[in-house]
Amino acid sequence: MNVSSRETTHSVTHFILLGFPSSPEMQCLYFGLFSAAYILTLTGNTAIVCAVWWDQRLHTPMYIFLGNFSFLEICYVTTTVPNMLALFLSSSKSISFVSCFAQFYFFFSFGCDEGFYLCIMAFDRYLAICRPLHYPRIMTKELYTGLVIFGWSGGFILFVTPVVLISRLPFCNPNIIDHFICDPVPLMMLSCSEDTTTQLIYSTFNVIFMIGTFLFILCSYALVILAVIRLPSAASKRKAFSTCASHLAVVILFFGSVMVMYVSPGSGHPVKRQKFITLFYSVITPLCNPLIYSLRNKKMKAALMKVLRLDNMLIKYK
């Protein structure tokens, strides 16, 4: 049994991603819908990045973190959506072994970085609201630069171990993944031998990361809410709650769906449910985030209007 497993380890050179099986007409419809969602996601997040970059008033830690988060969203959706769109137009629907695990690594590394950035943004709001007098002294350029670097690199460091462990599993036919991305759960199910150690390590990693980051964010905002309640001015309360509400909405959208999916991969969610949950946090959430952050923030709306006016001027000039 061990010999055959070793022999079949390298027998799989590619996987078949079924995506959303349906008629050719429906495949074209899906292609149009997800293309529109992808373009809107890129447009919204790029507008936020440009607004933060060009508007001097937004060169503060809060908006610098938001600009990096939006750029991270662009990278996040680009790891999966273009390939998913290609699947709608492809008859073979195949992806090479290396490309599959590269997608797995980058998608979940960027997703992990999103969790870190949400923690960083929660920490920034905690300092700004709960320690306003000490904020300039604590949130120095060195500190927020270090946080930006950590936010980008943390996921890439942490996800090396799960990717290496799962890629070393023995894979053999069938090589069909009933999903639209190279998700670790169906990948582990395709292994010729059940490696409980790898599953345990992967589950433990997810639980520690998800619960740890989520509790950190909840504790930060609990302290923020207590501080806001003590504010004497009603206008100050509304301003603080408005900022925190945007952050909390993104936190709930992101962590709510991800926790359901990955904290207990062994529980065996139905395939359609897996696809829907993954679709929600990989496509819908990045699409909603620019709206959540821009519509509830006057400075961001003003900066975005400048960006849009500049774009219109460039179009007229051309």
Q: Overview of this structure, please?
A:
With 318 residues, the chain is mostly helical. Helices cover 77% and strands 3% of the residues. It contains 13 helices and three strands; from the N terminus they run H-E-H-H-H-E-H-H-H-H-E-H-H-H-H-H. The chain has helices at residues 2-9, 24-54, 61-78, 81-89, 97-130, 135-138, 141-158, 160-167, 184-189, 196-229, 234-262, 271-295, 298-317, and strands at 14-17, 94-96, 176-177. A three-stranded mixed β-sheet has the order 2-1-3. Helix 10 packs antiparallel against helix 11. 32% of the residues are buried.
Give the key terms.
mainly alpha; 13 helices; three-stranded mixed beta sheet; disordered N terminus; 318 residues; 3 strands
Compact description:
The protein is mainly α and 318 residues long. It has helices spanning 2-9, 24-54, 61-78, 81-89, 97-130, 135-138, 141-158, 160-167, 184-189, 196-229, 234-262, 271-295, 298-317, and strands at residues 14-17, 94-96, 176-177.
